[in-house]
Design goal:
By secondary structure, the chain is an alpha/beta fold. It is built from 16 helices and 18 strands. Pfam families: Sacchrp_dh_C, Sacchrp_dh_NADP.
């Protein structure tokens, strides 16, 4: 029997754990789900005889190493900063490690040792990063194999709300880690546009002018943190434009630009929220930081701010000392929640321009996934299923790759994308 450890049982782990449990009998698997809150793990196992729930404080080295030692493969669904502890354990005990998070500098330093131990650390194996890499590389390799020279690569992806559940002025509901939603874009963005390197600071990142059509729907986008690093990985040095972005509704981008202008994502100052209503907090924050000139007068933004309670004089926040960023997160989690009947939506679009035989061509490929409800979300499916499929394919020997990798090689993306297609996660060529 093969042992799989899933560390972290948050929102994005639902489909991952369900897939593993559904295939446990025929693949002879046992799945241990460990979380800082035991009930999270218990709920995800849901009484399945092929699973065990464990309480895990990542800082408890003895318990953490005990769980890693008995596993054949570890899937980390922990916050990105905590992956490194599991990575060290997996290297020590020679266990495979998978995660949906970006490859960090700490694990990169372990690259040679990982290869020497003949194990696989597969990072960026979720949605974005993850499915974006795999689907893009399928297109890129097919174009290159057919003699095309790629001159422009644009990849867009967004976790959005499904049209039938879009009933607030932000046109958005939280379907993944709320802290990541609030802090998105803080590092600014670097990308290549028409042969020039562009570096966009956080303050100018959310521009309503950046728009793209997807299946006759207009979306706005903002560039992801560092597109340039993927030029080498994708081997697209010939591309004059190379950018990876996040999709949002145009009104969301407009409202979020105002949020940034008002320094409401600041993490350096703290306010005592005891006895403060949201309106009190908002006024105090604006007054103490001299931000009166940044106050919005756009009707859409005013409606958005009212929706997340910035003008509410009622119930007090009463959360002690909070930064503006933490206060904003509290208000978003309260007001932009997915209700039980809500559905989220994933939209991904690749735009690849290439030259062949003296002519210029454009290929566009699109993925749209709708969630089932507020638990079985499109986000949970598209983040968790690639990890689950890869884990089973590593354990049965289909994927033999070793070392530190992201899923840009055919050995990984061909098998995983094929399985995802069977599960209804399928790209459509919308222009060629």
């Amino acid at each position: 029997m093969k042992e799989i450890l899933v560390a972290g049982a948050g929102k994005s782990s639902v489909s991952l754990i369900e897939y593993l449990l559904q295939h446990a009998a025929d693949k002879d698997l046992h799945i241990t789900v460990a979380d800082a809150f035991l009930q999270n793990a218990v709920d995800k196992i849901n009484g399945n005889k092929h699973g065990t729930a464990e309480k895990l404080d990542v800082n408890d080295t003895e318990k953490r190493q005990q769980l890693v030692r008995k596993s054949d493969i570890v899937i980390s669904m922990l916050p990105p900063a905590l992956h490194i502890e599991l990575a060290k354990d997996c290297l020590l005990f020679e266990k495979h490690l998978l995660t949906a998070s970006y490859t960090d500098e700490g694990v990169k330093k372990m690259s040679e040792a990982i290869a020497d131990k003949d194990i696989l650390f597969l990072y960026e194996m979720g949605l974005d990063p993850g499915i974006d890499h795999m689907s893009a590389m399928q297109m890129i390799h097919a174009i290159q194999k057919d003699g095309g020279n790629i001159i422009s690569f644009k990849s867009h992806c967004g976790g959005l709300v499904a049209p039938e559940s879009d009933n607030n002025p932000w046109h958005y509901k939280i379907s993944w880690n709320p802290a990541n939603v609030v802090r998105a874009g803080k590092a600014g963005a670097s990308f290549k546009q028409d042969g020039e390197i562009e570096n966009i600071p956080y303050e100018h990142l959310f521009s309503p002018e950046n728009k793209v059509m997807v299946n006759d729907e207009l979306y706005s986008f903002y560039a992801n943190r560092d597109s340039l690093a993927y030029i080498d990985l994708y081997n697209l040095h010939s591309a004059k434009t190379f950018v990876r972005t996040t999709l949002r509704h145009p009104d969301f981008i407009k409202g979020w630009a105002s949020i940034v202008d008002l320094q409401l994502t600041d993490e350096t100052k703290r306010l005592q929220t005891a006895g403060l209503s949201p309106a009190d907090f908002f006024k105090k924050h604006v007054d103490e930081n001299g931000l009166q000139k940044a106050l919005p007068n756009d009707p859409t933004i005013l409606e958005q701010f009212a929706f997340i309670d910035f003008y509410d004089d009622g119930e007090h926040i009463n959360k002690g000392l909070l930064t503006p960023c933490e206060t904003l997160q509290y208000l978003l989690e309260k007001n932009l929640v997915l209700t039980p009947d809500d559905k989220d939506m994933i939209v991904m679009l690749h735009e690849i321009e290439f030259e062949k035989n003296g002519n210029t061509h454009l290929h566009k490929s699109c993925l749209v996934v709708i969630g089932d409800d507020n638990i079985h979300t499109a986000m949970a499916k598209t983040v968790g299923l690639p990890l689950a499929i890869a884990a089973t394919k590593i354990l049965d020997g289909t994927i033999k790759l070793r070392g530190l990798h992201i899923p840009i090689v055919p050995e990984v993306y061909e098998v995983v994308m094929s399985e995802l297609e069977k599960l209804g996660i399928k790209f459509e060529l919308v222009e060629s």
